[in-house]
Amino acid sequence: MFQLSEKQAQEIVDKMMMDIPYNINIMNHQGIIVGSGTRERVGTVHRGAVKALATGTMVEVWEDGRYERKGTNEPIVIGDTRVGVIGITGNPDEVRPFCNIVRTTVALLIEQKNALEDLANAASRKKAFLEQLLSHQGAYTQKQKKEAAAAYHIDLHLRTTVLYIKHWQPDEEEAKLALRQPSFQLEEGVWLVLVQNPAECDKLTAQILGSGPTVRLAAGLEEASIAASYTQAKSAMGILEALKPAAPSIRYADTEFLVRLSQAGLTDEPNNAARLEDTFDLLETLQSFINHNCSVSHTADALNIHRNTLQYRLKRIESITGKDPRNILQLFELTYELLAMYS
User: Of the segments 89-98, 128-137, 312-321, which one has the largest average pLDDT value?
Assistant: First the structure.
């Protein structure tokens, strides 16, 4: 059961008393004052609140006594639960309308807080379940199958293709489209979509890529293990980011050799291509040169630069990395180093 903290209760009291010319008390589910215009009363038991909690109805006190003052005390009820009491000091006939206003305000704040906590808890559970799926090895348990089906509409009996998407900010309609499939947002702009109907994969991929020019998508193989397809898709995304081909998407099926090459650990020497990271134009030039099969004219056209400028950049790449991209064997080394940077 959610409870207002003393800080939250006191903030509400202070704000409401700027507009209401009466002392306000907020009591918790035990009748203890947690916020008050009379600060010294915080932490003490309010007898009127205890009665209100016991009866579930407003308790009005018409005379000041030793332990209580005249006023109204109305329970705060969320659902069927009495979570606290609002008390306002003064003649009950005068303060009763204010009591209703403050009680409603506090109830709305508690309900809002509960809703936010429920969303946070649901997001936390979803994240934990995804992490479990992405690291799972072997056969799925019955518990996993039931949770996947009931909470996330994932049938773990079916083979799955994982789509790994970057730079995707779906609008409402695009989100609805994606959410027809089990979908998980890893971080801002990064999503996983689990496709369990192969007939929908190409159409869904085209629609996601059509949502923006910067969207990038990598697809794993259709696997019995979601973790296996995820690993493939993520590795394929590394190839896409390393080589920057013209196409905005990539499939692990088409790039398995490059993935294996990127992860081969062929040398302990420093990565020469990594020296180009601080010179974006040279890194872009190397990627374009690779993608255009070492064609000077096609690379220059793609970069919209003069052939002489391209030749100058290729020489600069050689001077920085120690590898000449115009030499096929040295270009292969540079390509491997590019792949290793993103593996």
Answer: 312-321
Domain count, the chain: 3
Do 21 and 79 belong together in one domain? yes
**Domain co-membership, 13 together with 115:** yes
pLDDT tens track for 95-137: 888 887 877 777 787 777 777 777 777 778 888 888 998 999 8
* Mean pLDDT taken over the chain: 88
Radius of gyration of the chain (CA): 32
Quick check: is 315 in a domain? yes
Q: Which of these three, 262, 288, 321, is where a domain ends? A: 262
Residue 252 belongs to a domain: yes
User: How is the chain split among helix, strand and coil, in percent rounded to 5?
Assistant: 50, 15, 30
The Cα 222–Cα 243 span in angstroms is 24
| Structural domain containing residue 190 | 150-262
The three-class DSSP label of residue 45 is strand
Is residue 74's pLDDT more than 60? yes
Q: Is the pLDDT of residue 179 over 70?
A: no
Q: Are 276 and 287 in contact (CB under 8 A)?
A: no
Give me the residue label for tokens 């056969």.
139
Among 316, 252, 338, 326, CA closest to 293: 326
**Burial of residue 85 (number of CB atoms within 10 Å: 0-12, 13-18, 19+):** buried
Question: Cα(189)–Cα(167) distance, rounded to whole angstroms?
Answer: 5
* Average of per-residue pLDDT across 12-19: 85
